Amino acid sequence: MQVLRVEPTPNPNAIKFVLDAMLGSPSEFRNAEEAASNDLAKELFEMDGIEALFLSENFVTVTMNAGADWHQVHEQARKTIEAHAGEGFTQASSAAPIPVIRDGAHE
């Protein structure tokens, strides 16, 4: 699974990772206990600073604690998400790589 782009959300403490795979039905997790049955969510909650997760269709929204290091969470979450490639997720048919937006600049 590849992160195609990262998008801001209306919540300044949340970032949206758009993927090249379909994750299935929407799932919301507010803590590690709720995420115990979802391997990706469980692993994301192992990171410092994660407050909540929302997985739906082809994206993961990560909400961080107000004091979390945005750059650290961004890099760790991206690596964790991409490490779950081939774990039963359906490839999105029309997905094509799109530049990542970081701090308002394209890569």
Provide key terms for this protein.
Ribosomal Protein S8, Chain: A, domain 1, 9 strands, 107 residues, two-stranded antiparallel ribbon
Explain the overall architecture.
- This protein is an alpha+beta fold and 107 residues long.
- The chain has a single domain, classed as Scaffold protein Nfu/NifU, N-terminal domain (Ribosomal Protein S8, Chain: A, domain 1), CATH 3.30.1370.
- 19% of the residues lie in helices and 34% in strands.
- It is built from two helices and nine strands, in the order ββββαββαβββ.
- A five-stranded antiparallel β-sheet has the order 1-2-6-5-4, with helices on one face.
- A hairpin with a 5-residue loop joins strand 1 (3-8) and strand 2 (14-19).
- It is globular and about 30 Å long.
Number of domains: 1
CATH architecture: 2-Layer Sandwich
What is the average of the pLDDT values? 83
Report the sheet-strand fraction.
25-35%
Q: Provide the succession of SSEs.
A: EEEEHEEHEEE
- Computed Rg: 13 Å
Strand line-up in the sheet with most strands? 1-2-6-5-4
Q: If helices are DSSP runs of H or I spanning 4 or more residues, what is the number of helices?
A: 2
CATH topology: Ribosomal Protein S8, Chain: A, domain 1
Give unreliable regions as ranges.
90-101
Distance N to C terminus: 19 Å
CATH superfamily membership, which one?
Answer: Scaffold protein Nfu/NifU, N-terminal domain
